[in-house]
UniProtKB/TrEMBL annotation:
Designated name of the protein: Ribosome biogenesis GTPase A
All residue ranges annotated as the CP-type G domain in the record: 13-178
GO cellular component terms, A-Z: cytoplasm
Pfam families: MMR_HSR1 (PF01926)
NCBIfam families: GTPase_YlqF
Length: 280
């Protein structure tokens, strides 16, 4: 698939993160709980160095709970602080605040010993586009501080935001990286909506997603789209979904554009079910 996914603003965002890193005490790296490996920017660890970091698994309401539990165990086993959250219900938000306080307590105590007045803890949040950074910030702030949306690229520039609990947070635009070594990673990012649909072939993307879901989550597809389970090809499955949803053009032709958008949208919104695409 020909995906143009590294526009100029992402290079500027990477430079911005490097410049502002010296001002912060801790970094939040926000990942999509459905694809924790694919949504990890491999450049982040190299950029932030030894700065304290918390991995946040967002969208746990859309992911398979069993997979999320395994991912939490995986990160902890590798000595990485990890917090699963749901920015809609607020699940995990208090735990995240408590973990942040613990991570920077020594630094704040050192400032007090030097006779300096305590200052707000400074946090930087980084993540790929459409992973839910703005929704998390609004939850932490207890008010709508940033614009949110269900498409990548909503956050356009850096902004400092005062949070509850004497903390300040630097939001940054979503950042992808300049080269995907694995086609599966690129597809997972496209499935989740991290890459704008306008710059790719959504029909091929929906076909590939349906292929994966039919292989690993057949029962959810059968139930959601009222199908039988004896189909032999993916195009046959897609055709039947289209007919059940009334995606038909003149001459009894399948409207592949419309049904492709429906399949992608219903996966991303969780209407097909709680599905993870990656497991440790």
């Amino acid at each position: 698939m020909n995906i143009n996914w590294y526009p100029g603003h992402m290079k500027k965002t990477k430079e911005l993160i490097r410049e502002q890193l010296k001002l912060v005490d801790i970094v939040y790296e926000l990942l999509d709980a459905r694809i924790p490996i694919s949504s990890r920017n491999p450049d982040v660890d190299q950029i932030i160095g030894d700065k304290p970091k918390v991995i946040i698994l967002n969208k746990i309401d859309l992911a398979d709970p069993r997979a999320t539990a395994k991912w939490v165990e995986y990160f902890k086993r590798n000595s990485i602080t990890v917090i699963p959250i749901n920015t809609i219900t607020g699940e995990g938000i208090r735990q995240l605040a408590e973990e942040s306080e613990r991570a920077i307590k020594d630094k704040m105590d050192a400032l007090i010993k030097k006779g300096r007045r305590p200052r707000p803890a400074r946090i930087m949040i980084v993540g790929i586009p459409n992973v839910g950074k703005s929704s998390l910030i609004n939850k932490l702030a207890g008010r709508k501080s940033t614009q949110t949306g269900d498409r990548p690229g909503v956050t356009k520039s850096k902004q400092w935001i005062r949070l509850k609990g004497n903390m300040e947070l630097l939001d940054t635009p979503g950042i992808l990286w300049p080269k995907f070594e694995d086609e599966e990673v690129a597809l997972n990012l496209a499935f989740s909506g991290a890459i704008k649909d306008e710059i790719m072939d959504t029909e091929t993307l929906a076909y590939k997603l349906l292929e994966i879901l039919w292989g690993n989550h057949k029962e959810k597809i059968v139930e959601r789209y009222k199908l039988q389970d004896e189909y032999t090809t993916i195009i046959e499955i897609m055709d039947n979904i289209a007919r059940n949803r009334g995606c038909i053009l003149k001459g009894d032709e399948i409207d592949y554009s419309r049904i492709s958008n429906i399949i992608l949208d219903e996966f991303r919104s969780g209407r097909i079910g709680q599905i993870s695409l990656e497991y440790p």
